[in-house]
Design brief:
homodimer, alpha+beta, three-stranded antiparallel β-sheet, about 20% strand, DNA-binding
Chain lengths: ~350, ~350
DNA sequence: TTTAGCACTCGAGGAACATGAGTGCTAAAC
DNA sequence: GTTTAGCACTCATGTTCCTCGAGTGCTAAA
């Protein structure tokens, strides 16, 4: 399976020109670009070999060759140069991330948007919490006579609140009592445990009080559910239309639809808990049908200690892998760093 | 300018078949569909008149006619039947809205999604607050030693919070003091007034305390800004691709891009403070360039007493106006009703 | 092992042509 | 005066056929 150096150079030339032009590459073009001092005939022989070995494909008898999924895979694994980002680009990224730091969601959204702009492909983002999230504390604040604010803080430091109206009104001692019950019985419990506890409590608590408790606990459960759920978000979907493989709407539509329906639970393209923090899936390597003809380059990053996020670029198999991976890995590192973790200095790639 | 009854019937037949088929309508088709007992030749004469008066257009000499913007306008204003929604559809809408009632944003998003599904067009939503929003109260909750939660409630009953870390920690009395200052000096102020007050305060307050105050007030100002800003959101963008006028990517792209960039300040398609609560903009009537070839049907609804929202459907000028307006007006009414306002019973349209 | 030469394949692009839907006009019919 | 039938004309669409050329595989010579 080990390819000769010359074969590698040829393959690389083909992949790169195909990435650039989106058109099958013929022997003549390779002869010029690969920097080898051999004739087109020799190249043709080598190309025939590569085709036989499954690294190249012919759309039809007399067109040039295009890389197969295996060809891209080899390119990505062994042949590709790491690209450097320009100063301008790093600047752009940093700006986007530092800007206020605001809320987690918004930073991530913004990150997706910028990445999509500098990579020319759509970008999706996803954040997944660790398995077990619990509520760290409850706070209740009376407002006016007939409503209070319930503030729930989870152990991954997310704080959510809700305005709860109660027809009858509530006295201060009642409120404190409620707060005490919540903080003593529901702190440290997972969603499921909360549900159990609530059930048990129902029988041996005064009905009026129980309903109030249930109201707040249900809200807390929603918050936990919301945290655990993977939030899928996509940016720059229209970038897809820039690339010739999606000029035909029949191709573009399923993928766009897949990226668009943000709310739905997203069968995530691949495990995000593999050790590596950069992952490339080429065409058929994707499980999901909508992605069969596309490649996904994704990187994961840490959000504090308890959560992990994924940010990924979606594009045609003929994607500019070198460019994308460079930008993506810088992005992921920046995100991790900004969420508070120190990174080891990046290893220099040995060339 | 008053058209004969026959001309109206012909125009209506043309608009409706063109809406259904997306293809120029010829005299023969009209003769069959309009329910008039005249020959195609007569129809042709009438169609020639209508073309001259600007209600119809010819793509080229020997194709059928298509409605012009003026034609659609006439159709919408006078000719169109109001459609009834099926029981199933109202059911669907009600489900989508009632489901939990949760947060305002989420309900609206969900509404957009459902509307987009039942109308087959993309839908945008927008919410705009009234002019002056102020903070109604501040609450501060200590968590751990080095952080507290700031809870801000605005006078339109939106509650937001933020976790604020402070290196040194804060004693309980300090916290209460802070809370007192905030509630006495910053409640009832608009964003701009807050800024002023903060500036004045800077000179005559202890530096340490001032920074804390500034931290919270800045957050409150963000909340207010966020409220005032019109939030534009779109759903079902890929529905666009279902319609033949957007099969060509060059047509689809600008519009998709316009709908996609949610974050940006959106030059809103039209005033939402016109008295009417249903508004139809046909093709060139749109100010925005990206919408020049599309129609927008939008309805506004009230969110409580202080805010107003707009929900709109975007599609080709050949849009099924009858269907869309029916669904949209039901939607807008439902939204208004669900946000607490009693509606007068709908007037029966006199036919 | 490499190269030159050559016949072969096959898609892209273009010209020529037929088709047919739809039109406008005119003259006859009502 | 209005409606209708008839007819010539226009023009987008689809089809066929052809050429062109890039690229291939194979063979024989270097």
């Amino acid at each position: 399976m080990a390819l000769s150096d010359r074969k590698k150079r040829i393959l690389r030339a083909i992949v790169e020109t195909y990435i650039a032009t989106a058109e099958p590459v013929g022997s003549k073009a390779v002869a010029e670009l690969a920097g080898l001092d051999v004739s087109t005939a020799t190249i043709r022989n080598e190309m025939a070999d590569l085709t036989e070995q499954g690294f190249l494909e012919q759309p039809h008898t007399s067109a040039g060759r295009i890389p197969s999924a295996a060809g891209y895979r080899l390119y990505v694994n062994e042949l590709m140069d790491r690209q450097q980002l320009t100063l301008q680009e790093t600047q752009r990224i940093n700006d986007a991330l530092n800007l206020k730091m605001e809320e987690l969601d918004r930073v991530i959204d913004r990150a997706g948007k910028v990445l999509s702009q500098i990579s020319d492909y759509p970008v999706f983002t996803m954040a997944a919490a660790k398995e077990r999230i619990t509520v760290k504390r409850f706070d209740l604040l009376m407002v006016e006579d007939n409503a209070f604010i319930a503030v729930v803080m989870t152990d991954n430091s997310v704080v959510k609140n809700k305005l709860i109206h109660i027809p009858g009104g509530l006295s201060d001692p009642q409120l404190q009592m409620l707060s005490a019950v919540l903080n003593s019985s529901f702190v440290g419990l997972s969603r499921e445990e909360m549900e159990e506890t609530l059930d048990k409590m129902e029988t041996r608590t005064a009905p009026g009080a129980f309903e109030l408790i249930a109201l707040v606990v249900e809200f807390a459960m929603e918050v936990l559910a919301d945290q655990r759920q993977q939030k899928f978000h996509a940016a720059g979907i229209t970038n897809l239309l820039e690339h010739p493989e999606y000029r035909s709407l029949d191709k573009a539509k399923p993928l766009m639809a897949y990226l668009s329906d943000e709310g739905e639970e997203h069968r995530l393209p691949a495990t995000l808990d593999t050790g590596k923090n950069m992952n490339i899936l080429i065409g058929p390597e994707n499980v999901n049908d909508a992605l069969k003809d596309t490649s996904v380059v994704m990187a994961s990053y840490d959000i504090g200690d308890n959560m992990r996020g994924v940010i990924g670029v979606v594009g045609p198999t003929r994607m500019d892998y070198a460019k994308v991976t460079a930008r993506l890995s810088y992005f992921a590192d920046s995100l991790t760093r900004m969420f508070g973790k120190e990174l080891p200095p990046p290893e220099e790639p040995e060339e």
